[in-house]
Design brief:
33% helix; Pro-cathepsin H isoform X2; mainly alpha; 276 residues; two-stranded antiparallel sheet; two-stranded antiparallel ribbon; zymogen
């Protein structure tokens, strides 16, 4: 898993025409070949009208990827399942647009003075990191960040790595200022688990990827939260200390256009807003 967990959240979207006045890109035969290969790989099919729109978006992303990878950056870009979308479409479909009052603007973690390790990877320490999961078309990113960090904390404390119920958070955590598939915050989800007295496992509360009625059964809760600690936004040394001494953390950041095509490496963007 991750020492930190990026978040994405979902809303509704409608496919619209290209922006008024935007000129179509001149597409080469090689770019068309790569687009058709990508369509086969991702099992994509379009109507004639939508094909042109998606080809234009793909070529624009393809060129950005090549230009970025030719430069000197800390991370690489690559094609993925979102490569036929503009960033504007991605925002409408996957990113929560409501303002978020992040708890990490003020921290309550009192850190030491070091020394700090140069690197920490809990994946190499044992079975402490759960597999990557897919939120689908639901703005439940915040639930996966919450369960991922809590799963690791439980595994480190007990030697048992659970798979916790994101769907419970989607369905049940609204009283803590979360909004199911319309977004939420891990800090508020942890508070829900704390005061709710537990979260069920994914085997007894499976993920549906859509809003539903709360089906929490207290007798089936398998993980609990005693307290929640917030690391102040942009306090990198505190984050290193927490990850090194305790467990992976939950991290939220503002998704920008270059993250749409992230492939590998250390993601870095000067103006991105990070919170833990």
């Amino acid at each position: 898993m991750w020492a930190v967990l990026p978040l994405l959240c979902v809303g509704a979207w409608l496919l619209g025409p290209t922006a008024c006045g935007a000129a179509d890109l001149a597409v080469s035969s090689l770019e068309k070949f790569h687009f058709k290969s990508w369509m086969l790989q991702h099992q994509k099919k379009y109507s004639s009208e939508e094909y042109h729109h998606r080809l234009q978006a793909f070529v624009s992303n393809w060129r950005k990827i090549n230009a970025h990878n030719a430069g000197n950056h800390t991370f690489k870009m690559g094609l993925n399942q979102f490569s036929d979308m503009s960033f504007a479409e991605l925002k409408r479909k996957y990113l929560w647009s409501e303002p978020q009052n992040c708890s990490a603007t003020k921290g309550n973690y009192l850190r030491g003075t070091g020394p700090y390790p140069s690197s920490v990877d809990w994946r190499k320490k044992g079975n402490f990191v759960s597999p990557v999961k897919n939120q689908g078309r639901c703005g439940s990113c915040w639930t996966f960040s919450t369960t991922g960090a809590l799963e690791s904390a439980v595994a480190i404390a007990t030697g048992r790595l659970p798979s916790l119920a994101e769907q419970q958070l989607v369905d049940c955590a609204q009283n803590f200022n979360n909004h199911g598939c319309q977004g939420g915050l891990p800090s508020q989800a942890f508070e829900y688990i704390r005061y709710n007295k537990g979260i069920m496992g994914e085997d007894t509360y499976p993920y549906k990827g859509q809003d539903g009625d709360c089906k929490f059964q207290p007798s089936k809760a398998i993980a609990f939260v005693k307290d929640v600690v917030n690391v102040t936004m942009n306090d990198e040394e505190a984050m290193v200390e927490v990850v090194a001494l305790y467990n992976p953390v939950s991290l939220a950041f503002e998704v920008t256009d270059d993250f749409l095509m992230y492939k590998k490496g250390i993601y870095s963007r000067p103006l991105a807003c990070f919170a833990m």
